[in-house]
């Protein structure tokens, strides 16, 4: 019989932390630190020159990180298998948030997309970020249902999974937020593939993605600004003042960093604010210019370390639900990272997605740290 | 984990790995492989050159007195990029500016437009720079106007005011010299793409005349301060800085007083020709040092005020410069005008005849007219002069003698079926006098004149064959006379053949022969100096602001005229007799200085715009003093009537100034060159007195900054 010892709270906290995957924690901590410096570098000089508080953004960024870490820690406390029970609630909340954003008077429009809900005190939340988690949990739950019976997901399970994810995806497309739509869709396809569902589903979904993308451009479902962004990706001169300008500036800013970089806080492109959205979507340009190939390459390696450890967690767990959650989080982070960094380097078209763990922005920071918490949760329970 | 699931997991891992590698590879390409290129791109995004224009060098006359100089002025600029963002495209602001500086809104509007933005008919006065620089609309603003703009930037958004050097042509001796000096203007888009020299966008460059020809010396090097700016164009730091280096001064051979006197003589001659009933649409007068080819004065009529560019041209002024109704004042008749030389050409005919074996001391018959085939050629004065010496023939300007010689030589060369190697004494001699070739004067866009020899005939025929062969369908109805149709038919079949009429007309400088006044002056200077053709030179030296001479232009011979000593002696005597007993004798009667010269009255084909027949071109080409020549003086008045009654009078007026002739007496104190010859050294340049003199009329301004920011091209 086990004797329950009463532990003090700090001791339990430390014990929990000590059982985390340390390499995963290390990579996230390093990325958070890196990101904090970059957000500071992106805003300090400009704000100072405008006679504003130079630490305005970095202070808020640190607060966001602290809240996010608390959420991540909280996520690790409940056994993720119990989370399955709450999944419908999480999913419902995600859909509600997405509906709220589209409701006139609640959602606010930025850069042509209705993606934000403004809160008092200058904060705002982006329900699409949190909806990613609800979609990943929802699909994992449905696809893992039969595993207890020792069977791969059936066609019916896949259909169910697709239909429950279709609603949030449609709502995100209505904002419109092309980047998030693509990231969630990619995560869904990968989760279905890893779940052991029939291969025809994976093939069909990939085909659907290609056809759907083509039809969206042709039929005018995509808004004009999305098409402009895509055009300027293919031909940077198509819209030189807007998207093309931003992409060109971003590329020049990164390239001008060279091998060693201009030094943190010393990037002329960054300090001159030639790149828009430097502290959020284009944060990687700050890394590129000020820390050079050494620094930004290191950042990529940290992401690589993160994905390696996350994959290990996914493989070690014997539980399909846990593995699918891990794979979903990995796919989400990987595609979001690629979309964001790829955009700044001209590999991907311009969409407004933040860089996980690095970009300034509360909702994204909370969501990614919750994702990190989910990975650790699965890690903790797979021993 | 099922097999399929495991396999898919590996695929997903590979996919994520490849995404990471793609990013790393791209990062390597951008930062390591192309880092330098992007660093340059970044620099051009961040840096702005602030250009402080260098003081442009002065152009001074042979005494060191300035004819062109920079003086302080005030520029008003319009920044189109700011105005363009306004709902009314800045119309209200421009109207306010127009009212402030006292010009019409329409004129101001045109000054702020790129030439390409306007319909072709309305381009005069347009801005030929670029839209990325503030457009200067006037440089003659007052301090009060500038302050009003600087202190009320809320009602004058995008409007700037700053002190700038203005190119000024002070006319200290009353000279105009517009066609010699030229004018300056802003750099054009083409200049900015020039690969041989770096220009900056607010620089001033020479557009024509000496300002253009010697621009590289005059211009100096602007000071450039490169600053780093942010996205809102706020300056964050200074990268590099160089101070402006003033331009060098250009010393010319022009004597400002003589130039003024020459211009005055030309203008009064044109007016008196008009009073005599001639159209006298334009004219030119040149004074040259016969020993060096240096141009001492050169005038063209009509002219314009070279200062008006810097004041900001009005549309009317700009149009007038190139309008036919105003006589195209922009055109320099002295080097760009081409006219039939007429009887002044007989000096060349004398040389040709001497080579053809004619005895210059023999007597020749000068009938009223001569007939070759069915064509009759006659003298101007419609009477027979009888038999005379060739010298008298030059003095009284008998044409028929030359017709006969020209015709005889043409027949000897085979006539309509030319020999294989014709002697062509007339053509070949004319070529050696430089007819049909630019003299190489140091001014831009010199015309070459025309030598209508066999080669030219053939080239012309090839060019116009189609027209002649389809004459009845292509010519204007008014030109469809039976005679012209017959001529066209002849020209269609063998228009390349030099005909009797061509040879006969050429012998007296008519027909297709054309010459510029500067060529004429050079030829008469060569006759005066013993046979050397010099390249006419306006510039004498380039001198640094500290007085060091950089370039010292020596006289340059471009060959000898093909005249032997005895032929030259004959010409000297003949040309002298023109003013003693010949066509110009009445003009120079009891003149205290011995002048040698030749009148010319060139018949001109075609009609004026109002339908009247064109009046003849009046020439007088001369040199003096006859026994020891120093100066060659030529005047030409287009449609000016007779050479003697118009141009010879004008030339005499120029000699009056040179030698100080007052009422048939030489008063050395009144002479422009008291020593009797033009100075040869390099004068000391005195800009200070000129600047001080002008400074009284120009308010000094020292407000605001002296520079403006421009983007690097």
Low-confidence stretches of chain A: none
> What sort of overall outline of chain B do the alpha carbons produce when their principal axes are compared?
globular
Oligomer category: heterodimer
Q: Main beta sheet of chain A: strand number and arrangement?
A: 3 strands, antiparallel
Report how far apart the termini of chain A are.
21 Å
Explained architecture:
The complex is a heterodimer of chains A (383) and B (713). Chain A has 383 residues and is mainly alpha-helical. In chain A, 69% of the residues lie in helices and 3% in strands. Chain A is built from 14 helices and 3 strands. Chain A has helices at residues 9-18, 22-49, 56-77, 80-102, 127-144, 155-174, 178-194, 199-219, 224-234, 243-255, 268-271, 283-316, 320-344, 362-380; strands spanning 107-110, 113-118, 124-125. A 3-stranded antiparallel beta sheet of chain A has the order 1-2-3. In chain A, strand 2 and strand 3 form a beta hairpin. The longest helix of chain A has 34 residues, at 283-316. The two termini of chain A are 21 Å apart. The relative contact order of chain A is 0.15. The model of chain A has no long low-confidence stretch (mean pLDDT 86). Chain B is of the alpha+beta class and 713 residues long. Helix content of chain B is 36%, strand content 19%. Chain B contains 26 helices and 26 strands. In chain B, the strands form 8 sheets. In chain B, strands 2, 3, 4, 5, 10, 18 and 19 form a 7-stranded mixed beta sheet that branches. In chain B, a hairpin with a 5-residue loop joins strand 11 and strand 12. In chain B, helix 19 packs across helix 21. Chain B starts with a helix and ends with a strand. The interface between A and B is large, with 51 and 39 residues.
């Amino acid at each position: 019989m086990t004797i329950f010892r009463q532990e003090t709270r700090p001791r339990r906290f430390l014990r929990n932390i000590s059982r985390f995957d340390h390499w995963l924690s290390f990579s996230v901590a390093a990325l958070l630190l890196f990101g904090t410096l970059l957000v500071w570098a992106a805003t300090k000089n400009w704000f100072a020159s405008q006679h504003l508080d130079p630490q305005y953004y970095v202070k808020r960024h640190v607060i966001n990180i602290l809240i996010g870490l608390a959420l991540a820690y909280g996520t690790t406390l409940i056994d993720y298998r119990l989370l399955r029970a709450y999944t419908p609630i999480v999913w419902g909340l995600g859909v509600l948030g997405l509906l709220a954003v589209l409701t006139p008077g609640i959602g606010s429009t930025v850069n042509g997309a209705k993606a934000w809900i403004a809160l008092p005190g200058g904060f705002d939340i982006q329900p699409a970020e949190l909806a990613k988690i609800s979609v990943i949990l929802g699909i994992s739950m449905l696809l893992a249902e039969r595993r207890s019976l020792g069977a791969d997901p059936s066609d019916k399970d896949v259909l169910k999974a697709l239909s429950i994810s279709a609603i949030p995806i449609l709502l995100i497309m209505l904002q419109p937020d092309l980047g998030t739509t693509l990231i969630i869709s990619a995560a869904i396809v990968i989760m279905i593939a890893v779940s052991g569902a029939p291969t025809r589903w994976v093939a069909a979904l990939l085909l659907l993605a290609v056809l759907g993308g083509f039809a969206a451009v042709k039929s005018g479902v995509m808004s004009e600004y999305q098409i402009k962004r895509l055009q300027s990706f293919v031909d940077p001169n198509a819209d030189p003042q807007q998207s093309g300008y931003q992409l060109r500036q971003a590329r020049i800013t990164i390239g001008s960093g060279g091998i060693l970089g201009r030094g943190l806080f010393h990037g002329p492109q960054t300090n001159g604010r030639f790149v828009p959205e430097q502290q959020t979507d284009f944060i990687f340009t700050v890394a590129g210019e000020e820390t050079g190939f050494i620094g930004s390459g290191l950042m990529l390696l940290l992401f690589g370390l993160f994905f390696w450890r996350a994959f290990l967690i996914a493989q070690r767990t014997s539980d399909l639900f846990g593995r699918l959650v891990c794979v979903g989080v990995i796919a989400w982070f990987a595609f979001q990272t690629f979309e964001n960094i790829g955009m700044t380097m001209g590999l991907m078209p311009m969409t407004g997605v933040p860089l996980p763990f690095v970009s300034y922005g509360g909702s994204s920071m909370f969501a990614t740290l919750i994702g990190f918490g989910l990975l650790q949760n699965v890690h903790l329970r797979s021993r | 984990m099922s097999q399929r699931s495991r396999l898919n997991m590996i695929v997903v891992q590979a996919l994520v790995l490849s995404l990471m590698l793609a990013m790393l590879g791209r990062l390597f390409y951008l930062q390591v492989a192309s880092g330098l290129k992007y660093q340059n791109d970044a620099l051009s995004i961040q840096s702005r050159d602030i250009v402080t224009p260098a003081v442009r060098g002065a152009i001074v006359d042979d005494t060191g007195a300035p004819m062109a100089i920079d003086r302080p002025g005030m520029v008003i600029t319009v920044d189109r990029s700011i105005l363009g963002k306004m709902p009314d495209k800045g119309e209200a602001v421009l109207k306010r500016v127009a009212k402030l500086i006292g010009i019409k809104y329409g004129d101001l509007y045109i000054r702020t437009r790129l030439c390409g933005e306007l319909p072709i008919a309305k381009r005069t006065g347009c801005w030929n720079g670029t839209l990325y620089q503030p457009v200067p609309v006037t440089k003659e603003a007052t301090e009060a106007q500038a302050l009003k703009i600087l202190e009320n930037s809320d009602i004058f958004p995008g409007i700037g005011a700053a002190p700038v050097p203005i190119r000024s042509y002070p006319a200290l001796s009353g000279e105009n010299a517009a066609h010699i000096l030229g004018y300056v203007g802003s750099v054009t888009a083409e200049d900015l793409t020039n690969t041989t020299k770096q220009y900056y966008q607010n620089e001033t460059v020479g557009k024509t005349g000496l300002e253009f020809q010697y621009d590289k010396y005059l211009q100096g090097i602007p000071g450039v301060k490169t600053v780093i700016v942010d996205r809102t164009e706020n300056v964050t730091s200074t990268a590099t800085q160089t101070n402006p280096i003033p331009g060098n001064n250009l010393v010319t051979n022009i004597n400002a007083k003589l130039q003024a006197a020459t211009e005055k003589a030309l203008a009064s001659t044109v007016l008196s020709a008009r009073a005599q009933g001639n159209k006298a649409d334009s004219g030119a007068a040149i004074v040259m040092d016969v020993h060096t080819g240096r141009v001492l004065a050169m005038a063209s009529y009509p002219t314009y005020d070279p200062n008006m560019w810097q004041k900001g041209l009005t549309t009317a002024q700009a149009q007038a410069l190139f309008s036919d109704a105003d006589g195209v004042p922009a055109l320099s008749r002295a080097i760009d005008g081409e006219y039939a030389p007429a009887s002044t050409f007989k000096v060349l005919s004398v040389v040709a005849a001497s080579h053809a074996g004619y005895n210059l001391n023999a007597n020749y018959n000068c009938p009223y007219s001569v007939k070759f085939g069915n064509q009759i050629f006659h003298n101007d004065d419609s009477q027979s002069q009888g038999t005379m010496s060739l010298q008298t023939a030059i003095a009284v300007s008998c044409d028929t003698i030359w017709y006969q010689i020209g015709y005889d030589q043409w027949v000897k060369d085979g006539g309509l079926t030319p020999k294989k190697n014709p002697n062509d004494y007339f053509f070949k001699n004319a070529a050696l006098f430089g007819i049909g070739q630019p003299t190489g004067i140091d001014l831009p866009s010199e015309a070459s004149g025309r030598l209508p020899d066999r080669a030219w005939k053939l080239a012309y025929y090839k060019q116009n064959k189609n027209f002649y062969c389809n004459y009845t369908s292509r010519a204007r109805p008014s030109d469809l006379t039976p005679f012209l149709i017959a001529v066209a038919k002849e020209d269609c079949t063998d228009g390349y053949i030099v005909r009797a009429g061509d040879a006969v007309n050429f012998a007296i400088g008519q027909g297709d022969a054309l010459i510029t006044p500067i060529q004429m002056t050079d030829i008469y200077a060569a006759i005066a100096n013993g046979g050397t053709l010099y390249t006419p030179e306006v510039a004498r030296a380039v001198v640094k602001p500290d007085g060091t001479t950089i370039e010292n232009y020596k006289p340059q011979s471009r060959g000898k005229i093909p005249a032997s000593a005895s032929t030259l002696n004959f010409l000297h005597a003949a040309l002298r007799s023109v003013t003693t007993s010949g066509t110009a004798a009445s003009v120079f009667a009891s003149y205290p200085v011995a002048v040698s010269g030749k009148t010319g009255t060139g018949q001109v084909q075609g009609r004026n715009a109002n339908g009247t027949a064109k009046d003849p071109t009046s020439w007088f080409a001369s040199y003096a003093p006859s026994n020891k020549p120093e100066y060659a003086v030529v005047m030409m008045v287009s449609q000016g009537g007779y050479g003697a009654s118009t141009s010879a009078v004008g030339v005499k007026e120029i000699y009056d100034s040179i030698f100080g002739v007052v009422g048939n007496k030489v008063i050395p104190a009144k002479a422009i060159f008291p020593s009797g010859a033009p100075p040869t050294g390099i004068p000391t340049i005195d800009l200070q007195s000129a600047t001080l003199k002008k400074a009284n009329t120009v308010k000094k301004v020292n407000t605001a900054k002296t520079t403006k920011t421009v983007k690097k091209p």
